[in-house]
Amino acid sequence: xxxxxxxxxxxxxxxxxxxxxxxxxxxxxxxxxxxxxxxxxxxxxxxxxxxxxxxxxxxxxxxxxxxxxxxxxxxxxxxxxxxxxxxxxxxxxxxxxxxxxxxxxxxxxxxxxxxxxxxxxxxxxxxxxxxxxxxxxxxxxxxxxxxxxxxxxxxxxxxxxxxxxxxxxxxxxxxxxxxxxxxxxxxxxxxxxxxxxxxxxxxxxxxxxxxxxxxxxxxxxxxxxxxxxxxxxxxxxxxxxxxxxxxxxxxxxxxxxxxxxxxxxxxxxxxxxxxxxxxxxxxxxxxxxxxxxxxxxxxxxxxxxxxxxxxxxxxxxxxxxxxxxxxxxxxxxxxxxxxxxxxxxxxxxxxxxxxxxx
Amino acid sequence: xxxxxxxxxxxxxxxxxxxxxxxxxxxxxxxxxxxxxxxxxxxxxxxxxxxxxxxxxxxxxxxxxxxxxxxxxxxxxxxxxxxxxxxxxxxxxxxxxxxxxxxxxxxxxxxxxxxxxxxxxxxxxxxxxxxxxxxxxxxxxxxxxxxxxxxxxxxxxxxxxxxxxxxxxxxxxxxxxxxxxxxxxxxxxxxxxxxxxxxxxxxxxxxxxxxxxxxxxxxxxxxxxxxxxxxxxxxxxxxxxxxxxxxxxxxxxxxxxxxx
Lengths: 358, 260
What we know:
- The structure holds 2 protein chains of 2 kinds.
- By secondary structure, chain A is mostly helical.
- In chain A, 71% of the residues lie in helices and 1% in strands.
- A two-stranded antiparallel ribbon of chain A has the order 1-2.
- Chain B has 2 domains: 1-84 and 176-260, 3-Layer(aba) Sandwich (Rossmann fold), CATH 3.40.50.300; 93-174, P-loop containing nucleotide triphosphate hydrolases (Rossmann fold, 3-Layer(aba) Sandwich).
- Chain B is α/β, with parallel strands linked by helices.
- The longest helix of chain B is centred in the middle third of the chain and has 19 residues, at 125-143.
- Chain A binds chain B through residues 13-14, 16-17, 19, 199, 202-203, 205-208, 210-211, 213-214, 216-218, 220-228, 235, 282, and chain B through 55, 57, 76-78, 80-82, 86-87, 89, 93-98, 102, 105-107, 109-110, 112, 114, 116, 119-122, 126-127, 129-131, 134-135, 138, 169, 173.
């Protein structure tokens, strides 16, 4: 066995607290990142990049965001779509009104605006918990989408109400709008994914991550240790909404190339929630696994019959999809609430001693 | 003996009511620096309510609590924590989804100062603090002999060890006053002996003042320097274990006599 956790000794706390303590893990992640940056744009087909990788990566950011709020801090939210919409509309507004601002700054700025909105809708979380909080965030979902549709200021009084994403470039390459190449968009999105995933891992292993988890697991004990519930919960709302806002902005600018409300409706919120549940609550890796799984499953179902020479009507596939999703969600909630990420961890623990029984 | 500078915490005429229920009535006592102070009494006597008042979780309607010479009536739990009061719970209140190490690290929450950006990027103080506090936490882990379960999620640990991790989390904050709510409840004899050893060495080696609630009279009488007895929210007696053992009111209300 090449891959072993046993026998990997560390001699300093700094080494023990590194993000990836096992050298093989470290090299694997670096290798994967290098391949994603260099290999994928050279090798992958246009379809793979434009229709699969870009949306999966963007949804991973949204899933990371929701995972921070729900998985780490334990605050259930159904407003993900709304915070994504906030990011998308405000990114459009900023990009078209402050034209000198580079796009790599516009998107985080839109994320910050979404964070401010997230804080406002997170205020009730001090008083209400669980399903009641979920309903309060549902209010954000409906109110914000209504606001963006009804107030034409957000779309610069565009007559159709669905403006196209403005073309903007980084280092001379177009990265947004219809004119940009898929490779450029992909790399632009990938840069955000890598940075935000790294930051999420850092937060999870620092004081702020521990204070979120403490509030999630036992809020009274957390308070007696010195964690103030309101600032802690609001910071989770703010950072979660920042991630969702960035994801929404990228979705509009780099994937669908338009700013439209239907991309961020309640179904989007549920989709991201499913990703987090299936992928694994409280896990950065799980956010990626969940996003890939939930996004790819319908594509797989659509194309799998073709591989075996069958043709199945589209509506039947849609129905199978619904049934499978329902069954999967129930399966994960009952059997493995920590999702795919936990299954991976169990596999690793088994491998630690394999092939010996103990 | 009773010089005021030696009194760490002074509780004066505390009354706590929940609607019509009087949980505590005019309770007064002092906890002296460096002692082990026991609060005993029958179920429902107000022992846990008393601890909850001390660390700011309940707000008594009357009376004052003076900690380190500072008088207060209303205080939030996190403010009490900042002043140096930490505690364990009757029903274990660990963070179940986190490992032992993370639980104990959380206990040092208030000692960390890195800004959000430093934490998010794991640079500067963000990284230095994590490592410096890890060293402190490892001292506590060594002290309580829980090295082997460092990376185990606490939800998987047996009850006795969970109690010990909870003590570790409280000690990680380097408290001046440690409140223990039934630290030996539900333990077998060996676990109790271990826990007694840890309580005593915390008191002797770290110099922490300890206030504990316990039902095991053997433990209370052996460990504590002084004892206060509560019954129906009122103070029945206060004194050394020997005085308490001989006090007729306490024998009638709580200790009882052996009939063998």
